[in-house]
Amino acid sequence: MKNPPLSGIEISTEKEDLICYSFDASNAEATMPQAVAWPRNAEEVVKIIKYASENAFSVVPRGAGTGMAGASVPAGTNCIVLSFEKMRKILDIDTKNMTVTVEPGIVNGKLQKELEYLGYFYPPDPASLSVCTIGGNVATNAGGPRAVKYGVTRDYVMGIEAALPDGSMIHTGGRTYKKAVGYDLKNLLIGSEGTLALSTRIRLKMLPLPEDIMTLLVLFKNIEASGTAVSKIISSKIIPRTMEFMDRLAIEAIENYKPTGLPTDVEAILLVELDGYPATIKKEAERIVDICNTLGGEAIVAEDDMARERLWEARRSISPALYHIKPSKINEDIVVPRDKIPTILMDLRRLSEESGISIISFGHAGDGNIHVNVMVDKNNKEEYAKGMEIVKRIFEITLKLGGSISGEHGIGITKAPYIGMEIKEKELGLMKGIKGIFDPKGIMNPGKIFG
Ligand SMILES: Cc1cc2nc3c(=O)[nH]c(=O)nc-3n(C[C@H](O)[C@H](O)[C@H](O)COP(=O)(O)OP(=O)(O)OC[C@H]3O[C@@H](n4cnc5c(N)ncnc54)[C@H](O)[C@@H]3O)c2cc1C
Q1: Is residue 142 within 6 Å of ligand 1 at its C-beta?
Q2: Are 104 and 221 in a shared domain?
Q3: Taking the model in full, what pTM does it have?
């Protein structure tokens, strides 16, 4: 690895680093990389990928490693992890055109803060925003609570500069809001999980901050009613900016981990947030309260910013809280059409009761995206195998309801064995063909998406 072409680039082959960079937030089994590299600019990225290509190494791009599908962990041998942590600058904020250009390693939450300070915002807000990077968000097409109103990462990416596996650079998208010239390579890179190219510069849209925000916590004694409330609110032509769901077990997990005062004697909670002009959101809130009351829900309005932040802190602490229940879990992020939310919630409850295995659900109910956590211990082989059977059953039910096996976490390595349940042979063949054109030597993030 101490080869002249890479001299001057920060690279480690120390065991401590190799171990740290062979994990992400999933429980995916990974192999150890041969080296970890931290390029500081696009030129260094190009040198690394060229070196890898010429010396039979594969490259695993990595943002912050918060991925839930093992997409940034090494799979196979002879691999260099390329971490974008040190490419984290905001390069340009163009208020005339409402765009911001960044290096891929910038942390989402840091970008949010910088833009908010100037009166703008970047809507995609994964619950991991305090750590995850924009490069990782683009590669997974990340969503977040605000996706229900504002859409996902794809809706905000205007252009991507990227290094191809042969070391050449491409520039996709552009500076304009509209473009109708040729195939849309930018959209091909979004959600490609680092299997096609390495993003080195990303241009994003930004929006003006809304005038006002109102946050409602709605408590339900009946889980199905909470799901019905979600589809009724949407069908009453109100689009809140978030509509997050937590079931009783998720609430209990939070309260045992970091008590925030959420009631534990309810079956489900919806965290609904509205934004816009004060008079409009007041009216929308009244309508939402009416709908929820009719379904037996009790709504509480967050009094001030502190109360609001406390609720979001609780919501964002669910994932770590669950690890206090079991050392491991199987985490899936199915998505169903919104009118099927009550059905899937009841199906999950039934599966849990039948199997005797706890299934904890929470997530972005407003866009039908439920994070399903099958609480099994990986070290207990029998229990784990039972958990995996439940996962397959959940995928079957989801697909039958017209849903998808991943709303935002992607396929990575953990869901690679299941992609064929959703994507048919013809379409899979086209996808593999595209991969082959970008990456004929197969050195970009091997083992991901297609297994
Ligand atoms: C507590 C918690 C909450 C979460 N909440 C959400 C949520 O609300 N919504 C959501 O969508 N996800 C969520 N996630 C999952 C995760 O945060 C997202 O998938 C995120 O986009 C990953 O970003 P990252 O920087 O950590 O990327 P990593 O995990 O490091 O990598 C993810 C993928 O991006 C690729 N990649 C990274 N940088 C580049 C680059 N520059 N060029 C090419 N490929 C690259 C990697 O190879 C990999 O395939 C959550 C995770 C946790 C732990």
Answers
A1: yes
A2: no
A3: 0.96
